[in-house]
Amino acid sequence: MANLDWGNLGFKYRETNVVISSHYKDGEWSAPVASKDFDFHFSCFAGVFHYANSCFEGLKAFRGVDGKVRIFRPDENARRLQSSGHHLGMAYPSEQMFIDMCVMCVKENIDFLPPYGYGASMYLRPVLIGMNPQLGIASSKEVIFCVMCSPVGTYSGAASLSTGTAAISRDYDRAAPNGTGKFKLAANYAISLYPYNMAHEQGYRELLFLDPATKTRIDEFGSSNFLAIKGNTYVTPLSDSVLPSITNKSLQAVAADLGMTVEKRVVPVEELAEFEEVNACGTAVVITPIRSIDDKPALAGSEVTRTYTYGEKVGKTSEKLYNMIRGIQDGREQDIHGWNLILD
Ligand code: PLP
Ligand code: COI
Q1: CB-based burial of residue 27 (10 Å sphere; 0-12 exposed, 13-18 middle, 19+ buried)?
Q2: Shortest-distance Cα residue to atom 11 of ligand 1
Q3: Are 208 and 238 spatial neighbours (Cβ–Cβ below 8 Å)?
Q4: pLDDT in tens, 47-61
Q5: Can you tell me the distance from the alpha carbon of 35 to that of 41, in angstroms, rounded to the nearest whole number?
Q6: N or C: which end of the chain has fewer CB within 10 A?
Q7: CA 56 to chain CA mean position, Å
Q8: Pocket around ligand 2: residues whose beta carbon is below 6 Å from it?
Q9: Residues near 90 by Cβ (< 8 Å), separated by ≥ 6?
Q10: Which alpha helices (DSSP H) does 109-245 contain, by range?
Q11: Are strands 225-230 and 277-282 parallel, antiparallel or unpaired?
Q12: Pocket test for ligand 2, best of 152, 223, 288 (most atoms within 8 A of CB)
């Protein structure tokens, strides 16, 4: 077992034992191999460097209360990677190959799987990148699929579930109308870096992006989906430019199991004033309650015109949802939907 401060991991890169990779060339994937070499060796003309021929995933493995190792919904991540890879015109792994390589990654790096009881997990980062040399704009014919991992705690770096602040991004979009927002492409994150840097300099933890076509509806946070609580209703945006979050999908099922009404629909910006609790949700952030959202016409150099507030503490319903999904992942709650892949 690695000697780490399991209660204070935060969300950052730590080198583990190995990375698992497979190479696609001439219509075939090579047998996955575990390597201690964390560097890629391929041409500086590879498409990934020039045209962002790259997509990725994020999922977690947990050490349960019963000592068993669970990976949360890897089949969903496999299918989402396939849709991203297909959009980029690249070869992509089968669902089984994706899952097998994730399992291999967890097993080969088991010393880095956080023990139960620290609220920590092993974050798996599968990436699919185009590697053949090219000059013109084209989909990559040769591809590397690689699964790496890092032990992580909370995304915010706080010791436990804590609230954060956000600003509405009115003058920068992360996705274009009819663009790539619904795929997990590396390019989407590059687009968000500039406004994120600005927001972080101003002390905001998150950026809330609007639908890029009309800028009147809520889309999602730059790192995660948007979910709000209104009475006994779970509200989350329906939009073509939002990443279909597996956490959000799971929480919707959990909310329904708890007797809540689930509404996936258009969410006008002004409705922020009617919500009792607002959260970011995703694999990295799990559920992160948002205590305030500032609206300003421009991210830099303009005054806040309105602030929506949701209280300093974690909301009651959000906490219930958080405890339920974390309980399922840790084996403390019954996995009635069969979401966990339990390793032998
Ligand atoms: N939205 C964005 C932009 C993300 O980067 C993520 C993280 O993967 C999510 C939503 C949440 O998706 P998931 O719950 O599948 O991790
Ligand atoms: C995830 O939640 O898995 C993501 O990919 C988001 C990123 C901010 C780490």
Answers
A1: exposed
A2: 282
A3: no
A4: 999 999 999 999 999
A5: 13
A6: C
A7: 10
A8: 58, 223, 282-284
A9: 53, 55, 128, 130, 139, 140, 143
A10: 186-201
A11: antiparallel
A12: 223
Residue positions annotated with a catalytic role:
184
- What's the chain's average pLDDT? 96
Predicted confidence (pLDDT) at residue 160 exceeds the cutoff of 80: no
Give the integer Cα–Cα distance in Å for 60 and 114.
Answer: 11
For CA atoms 342, 184, 238, 291, the dihedral sign is positive
Write the residue with the smallest CA distance to atom 8 of ligand 2. Answer: 223
Paired residues of 209 in beta bridges = 169, 220
Q: Whose structure tokens read 């990436």? A: 127
The binding-site residues of ligand 1, defined as CB within 6 angstroms of any ligand atom, are 58, 220, 223-225, 243, 245-248, 282-283
pLDDT score for 159: 72
Determine the residue type at 185.
Answer: L
What is the CA(248)–ligand 1 centre distance, in A? 9
pTM metric for this prediction: 0.97
